[in-house]
Design goal:
Layout (H helix, E strand, L loop, with lengths): L9 H4 L5 H14 L5 E2 L11 H12 L12 H15 L8 E4 L1 H13 L5 E6 L3 H9 L3 E6 L10 H7 L4 E7 L11 H13 L3 E5 L20 H6 E6 L12 E4 L2 H12 L7 H12 L4 H21 L14 E2 L10 E2 L2 E2 L3 H12 L1 E2 L1 E2 L9 E4 L4 H16 L1
Helix pairs in contact: 3-11, 4-11, 5-6, 5-10, 12-14
Bound molecules: pyridoxal-5'-phosphate (PLP).
């Protein structure tokens, strides 16, 4: 008898595992075995979830909130989200235009499934967050990547969008502040993108997960708030992971046209159902909070950003722009490619990061995972002490 080898489906075979999660896993493993790793690879705030949010979850459990909720989320939470969109973003979504999901990741996954047919194209500016391309693949659609450059602050030029447009173009995805670049789109750039989308009847998916981490000097704007035409074509995605240090709670949400949200909810009714009940209850508390949580966190992140950008630019051959948001820097290290570092010739960002982790015990994510091989991504959601230690190791590594 021949041995039975299970075969997975073709569309899953085409999807690589998340590169950021892979590097983080390796760094964590090294750490667990006693190696002193400085980890810049993670994608989450290093703060704990605030106590008042944790208390609210515990209270919810003791109050017996341990049953299923409606698939689209608790009615009260959808109301609170609707108010949040109105107050913070000038977006008027009714509660039926809102869904709560298992993280913003599931929001995005559901939306991709809800709008994309096989063969459709979705425009994605590059560098891009790793999962967008895989989500498009899982909907049997194609990603059309538009390169943007550090030299002009990752501006999304409309002539490039024009060139990418085909009869199959269904949607355009934007992510501001951006993971991995930290770039924040200006009002002018957003207005241009909105005009382009309206003119060509494209759906805009706006991933606004880093909204609350936008530094003074940059302005956060929801593209859907620019005018009533673009509002009708936009799905706005957000969540509590990054804003409230709640990555593990898995609560994200979206507002958008009721046709799209309704379809995404139907999909959710056959996959996860509504997210965890007591996490939704705690999210009501989190989103209703009026304390200065964001300001405090923003100040901490800003000091770290300033420090890491300065230290990186002090290294000869490293070129790092100052990001307007999120908690990542995306320095260009390509001047080292083709040269020997500590006995090994570096061919690209994968080599660079693998060698850096092995030789200097510093974890960073290769830019190629985000579609740009010249750069690497460092998360500065870690202490100033770790930042100084890690960049000092990087500096020594590059001289080796
Ligand atoms: C972290 C992240 C998400 C998803 O966050 P969830 O934890 O699933 O809510 C979505 N988009 C980007 C760009 C992210 O960095």
């Amino acid at each position: 008898m021949t041995e039975f080898i299970p075969k997975v489906s073709k569309h899953i075979e085409a999807v690589p595992p998340s590169a950021t999660l892979a590097i983080t896993a390796k760094a964590k493993k090294m750490k667990a075995s006693g190696i002193n790793v400085v980890n810049f690879a993670g994608g989450e705030p290093d703060f704990n979830t605030p106590d008042f949010i944790i208390d609210s979850a515990i209270k919810s459990l003791h109050a017996g909130e341990t049953k299923y909720t409606p698939v689209a989320g608790m009615p009260k939470l959808r109301e609170v989200i609707s108010e949040k969109f109105k107050k913070d973003n000038n977006l008027e979504y009714s509660t039926e235009q809102i869904m709560v999901n298992v993280g913003a990741k599931q929001s995005l996954f559901n939306i991709f499934q809800a709008i994309l047919n096989p063969g459709d194209e979705i425009i994605i500016p590059s560098p891009y967050w790793v999962s967008y391309v895989s989500m498009a693949k899982l909907a049997s659609a194609s990603s059309v990547l538009i390169p943007t450059e550090q030299a002009d602050n990752f501006y999304l030029h409309i002539d490039k969008l024009q060139k990418a447009l085909t009869p199959k173009t269904k949607a355009i995805l934007i992510n501001s502040p951006s993971n991995p670049t930290g770039a924040v789109y200006s009002r002018k750039n957003l207005q241009e993108i909105a005009d382009f989308a309206v003119e060509n009847k494209l759906i805009v998916i706006s991933d606004e997960i880093y909204e609350k981490i936008t530094y003074p000097g940059s302005e956060f704007i929801s593209i859907g708030s620019l005018n009533s035409d673009i509002f009708k074509q936009t799905v706005t995605v957000n969540g509590l992971s990054k804003s409230h240090a709640m990555t593990g709670w898995r609560i994200g949400y979206s507002g958008g046209p009721k046709e799209i949200i309704g379809a995404a909810i139907r999909l959710q009714s056959h996959s996860t159902s509504g997210p965890t009940t007591f996490c939704q209850a705690a999210s009501i508390t989190a989103l209703s909070d009026k304390s200065d949580l964001f300001e405090k966190n923003l100040k901490i992140f800003m000091d770290r950003r300033n420090r890491i950008v300065q230290l990186l630019n002090d290294i000869e051959g490293v070129n790092c722009s100052k990001p307007g948001g999120a908690f990542y820097v995306f320095p260009d290290v390509s001047s080292f490619y083709g040269t020997k570092i500590s006995g090994k010739t570096i061919e690209g960002s994968l080599d660079f990061c693998a060698h850096l982790l092995e030789t200097a015990q510093v974890a960073a994510v290769p830019g190629i995972a985000f579609g740009n091989d010249k750069h690497i991504r460092l998360s500065y959601a870690t202490s100033i002490g770790n930042i100084e230690e890690g960049i000092s190791r990087l500096s020594k590594f590059l001289k080796g």
